[in-house]
Each structure stands twice: as structure tokens, then as C-alpha cells.
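Exercise 7b. C-alpha cells:
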């Protein structure tokens, strides 16, 4: 996961600044490090929620990129290095998503085990769009594998395996938690398929800010296009925007969606130039605060599904 050092633009620095290290609540309120709870770190909010469902009160967790945070432009702090140094396990998405991770682990001198939760998932190749050279620096795989509910079942089982290996005395509890959560994911997957089945095939096309929904597209049959590549740090070219505008007009694409981790101005401009309506907000790489629309992974998928169905069935 090596990545070249980069200077953040002012806008990116502001976004990264909003992603301060945060604790994720797991189980009863207890002080960090009390008793036999396992210290773990999750790199971003979606992953923290999955770990919380599997680990529950057995773990003592911190996340690095918090709610509404953009992991693509994240800049780790010394406080983050301390969190990683103190952890027994560091859970990462992998697939090139955390391009800053190698530097952070080195700076922390951590002896934690690095758990790649996407292990065993068949990665999809990154698509063109935006700054292709930048996307290549982050690897050839599209990292947003959690956009397929089936993939998240694999994430959950990988999390369970890592927790059992580190805390074998709680094996039954971890496995029970995982089975219950996978059951909820099975229900969620059926909901998504049943809802999308009601959308006419010729209306299953939408535009989003960056290429974060490829796994959702492959799993459920909604076609997503975007002016920006799989990393939001990629620069958007005028040529890509012009091509997207032509596509929207030619295919009569019904809706453009905003994302909680990206600047909305470009998408609003594209909507104005094409006459496509802004269908609402989709959540791609981050959960919301507890009071928001998507405080958990299951809430995220249900919210996105409601937004898509509302726009494409109207």
C-alpha cells in the first residue's frame, strides 16, 4: 500500500480535518483499556460499525477516519500513531483504499496485527475517469467492495476470525454475534434485490460524484457513472465532464446524486447543464453521525436504496 507523499489542496485539507480520530462506541460505556477488552483500531467509520457488530462488548475500539470523513484525502496525525501503537489489531479495508497506512504504521512503530477485511473478495478493476495516473498510484483494484452486501458478509467473517485468533476465550461469543449480523445482512440483500427489481431496466442509470458504486452496480444492476475516479483526490478533467454531459443527454439519465464526502458544486453544475434532477444524497465511503441518515452500514444501504428507488421510479 505504498503511496507517494502528496500535498493536499486547501479543500482536501478541510475535509481531512473533519475526520479527526474518534472512538466508536461498543458495548456498555467503559473506560478504554479496562478489563480484558481487546484494543482494536478501524481505519474508517463503515469498518468500525462492522467490527462493533462482531466484537460488541469484548472490544475497545478507535477509528481513524470518522463519520462523514473522506479516507481518500486523510492525513494521519500523531494522535493516530499513538492509537495504532496501542492497538492489538488494526483492521483495514485493503485493496489500496488506505494509501496512507504504511506511513502511519511505520511512524507508530506498532506491533499490532494488520487485518485486511477484504481478504477473499474478488476485486473489480478500477474504471477510467478523473486523474487516471493518480488512481493507478493507489493500485488497480476498486476498493469500495462494501457496496455489495454479499462482500460485507465476507468482511464480517474475516473480522470474526481475527478476533477469535486474538481472543480465543470469547470464540463462541464472536461467532454468535457474526451469525446474527450475517442474518441481518441476508435480509438486507433481499430488500435491495426486491426493490431494484421494480425499477424498469431502461431507468437503471444514475450519476454520482466519484466511482464508488461499482460493486453495487455489479451486484444489483444499477449503472453508475461519475466524473471522478475511484479516489476523490483525483482531479476531474474538462474532457471527462463534457463526455459525462453528453452521456446524460444521450441516455436520458434520470438522476444525479450527491455524496456526503465530496463537494456538491460540480454535480449541481452538471445537473443544471443537462436538466437532470438532483436525486438526493448517497453515502459511499463514510457513515454519518448518530443523528444522521446513515449511522450504521445497514442504514447506509437502506438510505441509498430509498434514494435510488425514489428517483428512478418517479
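Sequence design result:
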Amino acid at each position: 500500500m505504498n503511496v507517494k507523499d502528496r500535498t493536499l489542496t486547501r479543500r482536501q485539507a478541510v475535509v481531512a480535518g473533519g475526520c479527526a480520530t474518534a472512538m466508536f462506541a461498543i458495548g456498555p460505556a467503559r473506560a478504554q483499556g479496562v478489563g480484558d477488552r481487546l484494543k482494536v483500531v478501524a481505519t474508517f467509520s463503515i469498518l468500525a460499525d462492522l467490527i462493533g457488530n462482531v466484537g460488541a462488548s469484548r472490544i475497545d475500539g478507535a477509528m481513524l477516519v470518522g463519520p462523514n470523513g473522506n479516507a481518500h484525502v486523510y492525513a494521519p496525525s500523531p494522535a493516530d500513531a499513538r492509537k495504532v501503537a496501542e492497538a492489538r489489531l488494526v483492521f483495514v479495508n485493503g485493496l489500496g483504499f488506505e494509501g496512507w497506512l504504511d506511513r502511519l504504521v511505520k511512524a507508530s512503530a506498532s506491533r499490532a496485527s494488520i487485518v485486511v477485511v477484504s481478504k477473499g473478495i474478488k476485486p473489480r478493476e478500477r474504471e477510467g475517469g478523473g486523474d487516471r495516473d493518480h488512481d493507478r498510484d493507489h493500485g488497480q483494484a476498486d476498493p469500495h467492495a462494501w457496496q455489495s452486501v454479499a462482500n460485507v458478509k465476507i468482511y464480517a467473517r474475516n473480522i470474526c476470525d481475527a478476533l477469535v485468533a486474538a481472543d480465543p476465550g470469547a470464540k463462541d461469543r464472536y461467532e454468535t454475534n457474526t451469525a446474527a449480523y450475517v442474518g441481518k445482512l441476508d435480509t438486507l440483500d433481499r430488500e435491495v434485490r426486491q426493490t431494484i427489481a421494480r425499477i424498469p431496466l431502461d431507468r437503471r442509470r444514475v450519476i454520482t460524484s466519484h466511482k464508488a458504486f461499482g460493486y453495487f452496480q455489479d451486484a444489483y444492476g444499477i449503472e453508475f457513472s461519475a466524473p471522478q475516479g475511484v479516489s476523490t483526490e483525483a482531479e476531474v478533467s474538462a474532457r471527462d465532464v463534457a463526455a459525462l454531459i453528453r452521456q446524460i443527454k444521450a441516455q436520458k439519465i434520470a438522476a444525479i446524486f450527491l455524496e456526503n464526502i465530496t463537494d456538491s458544486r460540480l454535480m449541481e453544475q452538471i445537473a443544471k447543464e443537462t436538466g437532470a434532477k438532483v436525486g438526493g444524497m448517497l453515502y459511499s465511503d463514510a457513515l454519518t453521525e448518530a443523528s444522521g441518515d446513515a449511522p450504521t452500514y445497514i442504514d447506509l444501504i437502506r438510505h441509498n436504496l430509498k434514494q435510488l428507488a425514489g428517483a428512478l421510479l418517479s
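Instructor comment: The radius of gyration is 19 Å. The first helix runs from residue 10 to 17.
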